[in-house]
Design brief:
This protein is of the alpha/beta class. It has 6 helices and 8 strands. The chain has one domain: Glutaredoxin.
Length: about 180
């Protein structure tokens, strides 16, 4: 079942790909919790690239980023984690965390993304190669969580390549700075 903001963010105890614990709960920090499909997903890897390139600016605004993949630790290390990332990547091979946050599946919406997001698909395929052709039907989702552990925004992708716009994340950061002032 989809989560609707405002609500308390469900707590998650995850481990990143290097064995370090990640707790999603009342952390005292602003958080972008991003759920990704497979580690070989071209759309997902392109978004990881975008978040990596924007990380310094987002972190300067007080944002923590946590990326959760429905994949094994080995696959996350092979694809998304093969380069150092400035934020934690977590493997969720059983998709338990994905289920907790109501992540949906849809073959139709996966095919829609392949047909309508060709430039992003090709950019992502350059990152993962042909392995990106055999990915699951999970849809992406992003959650903005405030410093009190509350969901401020729950963004469920309308297709496999649809992510929360970075402008929306920046607005969330500006609102957090106003609350802190």
């Amino acid at each position: 079942m989809k989560l609707i903001a405002p609500a308390l963010a469900p707590a998650l105890d995850l481990v990143d790909i290097h064995g370090q614990p990640i707790m999603i709960s009342s952390r005292g920090r602003l958080t972008l919790l991003s759920f990704f499909r497979d580690a070989a997903c071209p759309f997902c890897n392109f978004r990881i690239y975008e978040l990596t390139s924007q990380h310094a600016q987002l972190a300067a605004g007080g944002l923590d980023i946590v990326a959760v993949f429905s994949a094994s630790q080995a696959d996350v290390l092979r694809f998304a984690g093969h380069r150092p990332r400035p934020f934690p990547l977590a493997a969720d091979p059983t998709s338990d965390a994905h289920e907790t946050y109501g992540i949906e599946r849809s073959l139709w919406r996966k095919l829609k993304a392949i047909a309508t997001r060709v430039p992003t698909l090709l950019k992502g395929m350059r990152l993962v190669g042909l392995a990106g052709l055999s990915t699951s039907n999970l849809m992406p989702a992003d959650f903005l969580i405030d410093e009190h552990g509350r969901l401020v925004d729950a963004y469920y992708g309308t297709d496999a390549g649809d992510r929360i716009p970075l402008q929306r994340v920046e607005q969330f950061l500006r609102a957090g700075m106003k609350r802190a002032a």
